[in-house]
Amino acid sequence: MKFTDDQIADIGEEIISVLKTVYDPEIPVDIYELGLVYDVQISDDADVKIIMTLTTPNCPVAETLPQEVKDKVAEVENVKSVDLELTFEPSWNKDMMSEEAKFELGML
């Protein structure tokens, strides 16, 4: 089944809402506001590809965090499949955080 652009946009908004419920355990800010999600691609068939990073390659949740993201996004209505790619290029830095995240962490 092919989805319309509006439906894809709605699915995208749902995915972002879900991403905002996933937290880096060391920082009290969600992974979306932290800038750890580099890209969310959604095909016409609602196959989702997420490209994300971690704050450090040795992050204590390197095993569990990507799986949590994958599981939560897979539960979004109409999402057919989720492919998650973990990348460290470019490496994450605090400039990638949203204003909201910087404010939360007292950096503004």
TrEMBL record:
InterPro entries for the chain: Fe-S_Maturation_MIP18, FSCA_dom_sf, MIP18-like, SUF_FeS_clus_asmbl-assoc
Name under which the protein is recorded: FeS assembly SUF system protein
Source organism: Chryseobacterium taiwanense
Domain MIP18 family-like: 13-83
Lineage: superkingdom: Bacteria
Pfam families listed in its UniProt record: FeS_assembly_P
